[in-house]
Amino acid sequence: MADFLQILVTAVAVGSLYALIALGYTMVYGILKFINFAHSDVFVLGAWTGFTASTLLISRFSISGPPPLWLGPLVLVTAMVVCGLVGFTIERLAYKPLRKAPRLNVLITAIGVSLLLQNVGQLQFPIAPDLALPFGASPKRMPELLPDAALLTMSFGDNQVVIGLVDVIIVVSAITLMLALEVLVYRTRLGAAMRAVSFNTDNAALMGIPVDRVISITFVTGAMLAAAAGFLYSMKYPGLNQPAHEVWVLLGLKAFVAAVVGGIGNVRGAVLGGFLIALIEFMGQFVWARTLDQWFSTSMAPTLRDVYVFAVLIIVLLVKPTGLLGTPIREKV
Amino acid sequence: MQSLADNLAHQPARGVRDRVLAQAPWGVALLVALVVHFVLGPVLGPYWSQVATQAAIAVMLAVSLNIVNGYTGQFSIGHAGFAAVGGFTGAAVSYYGALALWGGATKQEGFLVPGEWLMVGGSLLGAVLAAGLGYIVGLPALRLRGDYLAIVTLGFGEIVRVLLQISGPQLFEADDLRSSGFKQWFPPPLGGAQGFTGVPTYASLFWVGLFAALVCIVAYRIKFSSPGRALLSSREDEIAARAMGVNLARYKVRAFVLAAALAGLAGGLYAHTGVVMQPREAGFIKSFEIIIFVVLGGLGSISGVVLAAIGLTVLPEILRDPQRLIEAWGLLAAVGVLATVGGVAMRRSGSRWAPLAVGLGATALGLLAVALVASGANALMRSATGDPQANIGKYRMIFYSLMLIGAMLLRPQGLMGVREVWDHFRRARPAPGRPGGAAT
Amino acid sequence: MLSRRWALSIVVAGLGLVAGAGGCEKKSEAPKGPAPAAKTPDSGSKAGTEAPKAGGAAADKAPPSGTGPILIGHYGSLTGSEATFGKSTSEGIRLAIKEFNAAGGLNGRMVEVKEYDTKGDAKEAKLAVERLVKSDGVVAVLGEVASGLSLAGGPVCQEAGVPMISPSSTNPRVTKIGDMIFRVCFIDPFQGFVGAKFARENLKAAKAAMLYDQKAPYSVGLAQEFKKAFEKLGGQVVAEQTYNGGDQDFTAQLTSIRGGKPDVIYVPGYYTDIGNIALQTRKLNISAPLLGGDGWDSEELGKIAGDAIKGSFYSNHYAPDQADAAVKDFIKRYQAEFNGKTPDGLAALGYDAACLLFDAMKRSKSLGGRDLRDAIAATRDFKGVTGSITIDENRDAKKGAVIVEMAGSPLGPKFRAQINP
């Protein structure tokens, strides 16, 4: 029971991060109809910018001991701004010239951008005595910006369920951001413009909507959400993998699967999908663990958790290709 | 895209080339294989022969992926998964077969020894398995729009990788094999994370040359056949193709299954080149490498993709030590200047081989330039960082990704587009229209 | 229009002829020293000759003589996710060469190293070694760190009759490739045994849990050997969990381990993952110490894991704080050479592998593959930084291991125990 609840806590925290990343995928897909493969790298950039910024700030202000509370939000904003700018640049330089090209070309460009970000991120040139940019090829420890306290500890027999402050903050800030996006998309003029562009770009242009600007804003919003997710992720898992680690790509892929399962192009679907995928990933591991372990005589369940996610993807595509909340799309003839 | 219609419409009426390829594909492939093995091999020497072997396998992978990504305009990112399925099947058949038949998996010396046939059998079985999996994966995904296939194939490659990772430990001795029971074979003993080792190195230049040539012939015959045009039409405009009565889903699935089978075959041979087969062979990083070949070579162009696969396999080897190439500067410069001058003269006289000569000269000069630039960059980096081993080759993935983006922005159809090398040697192409544009 | 077609055909032919570069380069190299081994006409099909025959061709090969520099090869992962491994090893080797040359080299002949990147990829590793032994004509090869890559490169050396010394491939199968392949580190079964022995005897642990990296052959091998040894010593493995290298959430595995109430948790992964594992272990209020292998060895470990790793142990090739003058001196010279960087175990092993090779060169009758091989095989009680090395009949190094504890401030490995075979 304790184990079950403990994993549930993790699943909810990770699920809200998946949801944040999935939002970026789904917004771009909704408008431009292509998978932005570089999105997961923007997420990584968010995490690593957070690391660089906080390390720099701590050393510049010679902070020792637990950092002040204002540092966390400041670093979060920095990461979001940097990633927003990068997202804007990517869209302008790489994607905008291909607006009318076949989608395959855009997809390949996205893969190119993704590879570029990964490999540039892995470089390291010393700039100042204590600063090297970009991020290098070894893992780093994210400074603790939040007190690492257990907020709630419940005992079940011998075992305890620990809910950390970090978990709560992740879920709360993720939900806050999602609500803000919900308001932006469904309650503002800008949101209406986004939906119009997503529905039909040419018509939107005819109605006087500045399509390019709306697309840029969409990209920047998605990138900022990914940056926030990256920062929150690095709070929960302070041992940061190096930027080109393939695990990052897998994380991004799972978020993309979440967007597809929820119904690609659908903002609420992405949130639903995010939580669902995390639950499947972690619960699959938990529920199947014992059966599989007996079968294989060693522990296989954790290794298989990626398999669950992709299996779910294939099943959803077979049964309901538009995803849980998606509406059927008619190809226009 | 006008260049495509143009290209297909102006194919010469079945010439000698097509007749030969149609009547005797095996003969052509065999000829290529024999030449590669007995002429090219000794000329290249042992080390560059190994590079050539890897290049031939890269060619097989790239040309097979081109059938899906190039011809049909679908996008598969799980090609390495199929290659790995073939690779591990081939490795297992070859290794365990040798253990069962001959009691040991040491390499048999000679040409066309029984062990080599076991390799061929294993690779073909791998191709069949890969084709079966391709059918299962392709059927749902190909009914949907293009990028779903991308994500499903990516997932497929990862699933293959994970399943290989949890496979059982390899059985090394004939006795282990004989006494093995169900427990050893489920999960199958493919080495797990440790990888599968000890596969005899039968993939000689002969075999890889033979199969690479066959794969290219198959791809060529498909491209210029009626089903091939159906595939290409679906890439250009699905709706128009459907309107013309092309059964899109069926063609797409067939192309996908064929590509998977050929990748499986290539993987089977790869397992016999002396590498350790590891689960990571199925991962998406390997798939991306193949995609880079196809995209830079030209989506749809067989010769372009072949050249890209060879070039991008050889280039890193040159970058290992560009200094060596500079030592041959006299030869390179002589060939370069002579061939270029000769080519220009030939062109004056109207020879159709002129571009070839110029190409040869330009290549020699280009190689020299690459070597000079690379070793200059190395020297610069070494003096800047103080690291005597600094090498520009380290940054090749950055160049590749920039090339991918640049290619899509500036030349979206890749180096060759859908055309073939020889299209550029044909003289006077009538009414070219506006070539090189993306789909309109 | 026309010019475009022209330009294109040039580029195309250009790409194609890059393939021909091999031929060009080959010709250039012909007058350049000893002919590469075995230039038989059908060399393509003969690649990978088997062990019994091996070295035959090379033994007749004229041993490189004269006064020019002696070329040795090193192949390692200098880029990619395992870049730090290759880099450390490379630095160790370069320090050894610098010192050897400064001391006069081999009768006045200097040693030079050719170094090729494997990018952590088996195919690249094989090609790199092919190039070293068949094109560059090195007298011996050092490398690789990862066993999977040594298994790809080893057969090439074996076939060409060039001795190879792996600094740190611990998989037993590496030296089984053939009689040309050596190593200067201990092997997995021994390291697993060391961990088990320390857990049983020093920590008095009765119940152990294991958490290993299913993706890393190294980690899987070590876990299996630990389990064997620990059960043989009367302990019990109560939980066995896996992860994929790079995973960042271990809640499911750790809750499962928690249920077994282990006295020690054996985590033979790479240091890159240990940080998150240690943090989450402590967060779940599991107080059992973690125990690891030499994959933990990195300056970064203390920084990544912080206090969570305090009081955990790992087996290693040497401890930087060992009261051994040779070790202290090595660290000092290394730091002087590489901007104050503390050498890790891989650097020390790279240094030892190179020094052992030079020692063998001095004793060898010639620099031919056979003679050099015999000289390496005859190494007894060679005093290396990582201990006294004796090459046994399996061409493995017979040497002890140390157990270090993560302690002190700044957090780093501190010597705890020495365990000999």
Notable characteristics:
heterotrimer, A: 333 residues, mainly alpha, 11 helices, B: 440 residues, ABC transporter involved in vitamin B12 uptake, BtuC, 18 helices, 71% helix, globular
Would you kindly provide a brief summary of this structure?
Chain A is built from eleven helices and six strands. Chain A has helices at 2-32, 39-60, 71-95, 103-121, 165-187, 189-199, 201-206, 211-236, 246-262, 267-296, 305-319, and strands at residues 125-128, 131-133, 140-141, 150-156, 159-164, 239-240. With 421 residues, chain C is an alpha/beta fold.
Q: What would you note in describing this structure?
A:
- The complex is a heterotrimer of chains A (333), B (440) and C (421).
- In chain A, the strands form 3 sheets. Chain A has a two-stranded antiparallel ribbon.
- Chain A has 333 residues and is mainly α.
- Chain A is globular and about 65 Å long.
- Chain A starts with a helix and ends in a 14-residue tail after the last helix.
- Chain A has one domain (2-245).
- Chain A has helices at 2-32, 39-60, 71-95, 103-121, 165-187, 189-199, 201-206, 211-236, 246-262, 267-296, 305-319; strands at residues 125-128, 131-133, 140-141, 150-156, 159-164, 239-240.
- Chain B contains 18 helices and no strands.
- The N and C termini of chain B lie close together (6 Å).
- Chain C has 421 residues and is α/β, with parallel strands linked by helices.
- In chain C, a hairpin with a 2-residue loop joins β11 (382-384) and β12.
- Chains B and C meet through α3, α14, α15, α16 and α17 of B and α1, α2, α3, β2 and α6 of C.
